[in-house]
Description:
Blueprint: H1 22-43, H2 57-83, H3 87-93, H4 99-118, E1 122-123, E2 129-130, H5 141-154, H6 178-195, H7 201-220, H8 228-242, H9 268-285, H10 296-310, H11 314-334, H12 343-357
Antiparallel strand pairs: 1-2
Helix pairs in contact: 1-2, 1-5, 2-4, 3-4, 6-7, 7-8, 8-9, 9-12, 10-11, 11-12
Region (Disordered): 1-21
Amino acid sequence: xxxxxxxxxxxxxxxxxxxxxxxxxxxxxxxxxxxxxxxxxxxxxxxxxxxxxxxxxxxxxxxxxxxxxxxxxxxxxxxxxxxxxxxxxxxxxxxxxxxxxxxxxxxxxxxxxxxxxxxxxxxxxxxxxxxxxxxxxxxxxxxxxxxxxxxxxxxxxxxxxxxxxxxxxxxxxxxxxxxxxxxxxxxxxxxxxxxxxxxxxxxxxxxxxxxxxxxxxxxxxxxxxxxxxxxxxxxxxxxxxxxxxxxxxxxxxxxxxxxxxxxxxxxxxxxxxxxxxxxxxxxxxxxxxxxxxxxxxxxxxxxxxxxxxxxxxxxxxxxxxxxxxxxxxxxxxxxxxxxxxxxxxxxxxxxxxxxxxxxxxxxxx
Length: 365
């Protein structure tokens, strides 16, 4: 059989717990299924009210209990699959039966569980799936786990192994470590790119701040590297600059419906290139004057352009755009040293080059 799942990392009482892993969510569903079985079973123990029962009521209650137990079995299979158990191992535990029989019987349940996790309707800031198809309590895991904690404590005796624990369920569900929480933050950023042609800069700022928060937590836990302070500063500067962009992004519909385009004074390709420049330029505009890569006048042009676009002032944006493209062309021709000192510098170079070249983006300098 497979090894036991990894234990949830210890969390300081002053730190907010990390989100549950998908393994933890599957175990939460199994715990909930067992609670349903227990509630129905408890109701049938005492014969106190038997004389008031309708004919057939005990059979119906027993059938309901069997259905709950079957549901628990299905979630047990889902949890086993999340743990890495093979269909051979599951089949052996079921009878034994063949792996094909086990797969045929429970594969649909496993697929229904995985589908909204693998391709959710949306993604939360912490990188976890947010989808109405995810059943309760996994769809609202903190609330669901807290409810199970309270229920189990209400039905606990001194002989139970979890006696004395304030969180007999939630404390033992698998959660992300700070390192794995950092890894899944990219899912939120990737979803922003998927949902909009040009993502909402304020949501990108939230993602940058979230990343910086996790890096700071990793530092407190002793897991930082020499580069971590630099990464934190870069994330904070990026978040600050992105929040200064008065925009909600550009939807994909703008490609097929010009009437919805927020800036009809320029071509769509031009606006796409321009938005990219304003996005990748933001961290450089946030630098201190002594470290700045643009003169105050050049920075002012791009800031004015951002403001005009944010207010939907098409005429003003068109007027400033001519200056901005001229500055972009000059920067690309001069190829300042800062353009090739980092990945951010190269990204800015590529963005300025496409913007200066026009909608085709093929001109060379």
